[in-house]
UniProtKB/TrEMBL annotation:
Family: Belongs to the short-chain dehydrogenases/reductases (SDR) family.
Keywords of the record: Oxidoreductase
Molecular function, one GO term: oxidoreductase activity
Gene3D superfamilies assigned to the protein according to its UniProt record, in alphabetical order: NAD(P)-binding Rossmann-like Domain
Name recorded for this polypeptide: NAD(P)-binding Rossmann-fold containing protein
Keyword Oxidoreductase part of the UniProt annotation: yes
Provenance organism: Glarea lozoyensis (strain ATCC 20868 / MF5171)
Length: 282
């Protein structure tokens, strides 16, 4: 693939920052975005354009941001909907505000960026969306109901989005990483809501400690992960000659978790098939 214009959300650290570094090194044009652009000033001096983009903004503000972004190079070819954060809390006493904020970031804001880019992509009958989902979409985990739920909602939103736009020349890739060594579990980024319910305290105490200790111990290398994603988008490296996929598991832990979920689901389906299938009118 020739040089392209990429817009990336959440580039202050982790996958987002790796996208900027890798793409600049490959000679592509990059619009690096962040909610606080002072954190990505270094990317300007390395050749990227920078722009403020906060996923908590409403649709009209996101539309304006994307209009500004298109003006920078006259077009956008690839949008990487990357930004996100992890919120931990027990479902029973989780606040509405915390839950909404997680869904706003992972679903409404993320899909809002995609919605804002669609007229541009449709008019050119070209464009690629990359969404950073998670293996969390494949199964609930204790104290992560908002994170898992919002990534699952993103998964099906993206599937719908794909079904509506693939005949318009638009490509969409949902990437589902396992655990990667980014700043996601850094205590400054991850939110831990303590429970007020004694019954859950042993669970949260153990889990919160475990996740905090896992920061910078995750097996996945985000530089390698991003390299693979860009190869898939560009049809290069191991992805050369292969059809563009709709989803991509990233990391061996992601492959194992998704395979297990598929196998468990098939087993359950077969075990209950007779009862499940006995509900049509005679
Ligand atoms: N690392 C993993 O193990 C893993 C696994 C599965 C999925 N993911 C997904 O990968 C994506 C990137 O995360 P990461 O692992 O690279 O974590 P990270 O290093 O913490 O980076 C997250 C980025 O998202 C930005 N962000 C958070 N809320 C935002 C908002 N409202 N508006 C704009 N930007 C916002 C952060 O900016 P600030 O500096 O302003 O906070 C930061 O740049 C996320 O969607 C995450 O859910 C990660």
């Amino acid at each position: 693939m020739a040089s392209r214009v990429w817009l990336i959300t959440g580039t202050t650290s982790g996958f987002g920052a790796e996208f900027v570094k890798n793409l600049l090194a490959r000679g592509d044009k990059v619009i690096a975005t962040a909610r606080d652009t002072s954190k990505i000033k270094h990317f300007s001096s390395q050749g990227a354009a920078t722009l403020e983009l906060d996923l908590s903004a409403d649709q009209s503000a996101l539309n304006q941001t994307i209009e500004k972004a298109i003006e920078i190079y006259g077009q956008i070819d690839v949008v990487v909907n990357n930004a996100g954060y992890s919120h931990f809390g027990i479902f029973e006493d989780e606040s509405y505000e915390n839950t909404m904020k997680q869904y706003q970031t992972h679903v409404f804001g993320t899909m809002g960026v995609a919605r804002a880019c669609l007229p541009h992509f449709r008019s050119r009958k070209a464009g690629t969306f990359v969404f950073l989902g998670s293996i969390a979409a494949w199964g609930g985990m204790p104290a992560l109901s908002s994170y898992c739920g919002s990534k699952a909602a993103l998964r099906t939103s993206v599937e719908t989005f794909q079904a509506e736009t693939q005949s318009l020349g638009i490509r969409t890739l949902l990437v589902e990483p396992g655990f990667f060594r980014t700043e996601l579990l850094n205590s400054n980024n991850a939110r831990y809501a303590e429970t007020n319910i004694d019954d859950y305290k042993p669970l949260t105490e153990g889990l919160f400690k475990q996740f905090k200790q896992y920061h910078q111990q995750q097996p996945g290398d985000p530089a390698k992960g991003v390299q693979r994603i860009i190869d898939v988008v560009k049809g290069e490296g191991e992805a050369a000659g292969k059809d563009f996929p709709t989803t991509l598991a990233l990391g061996p832990d992601a492959v194992d978790a998704i395979r297990k979920k598929c196998n468990d689901t098939l087993k359950l389906l077969e075990e209950w098939e007779s009862l499940s299938s006995s509900t049509n009118f005679d």
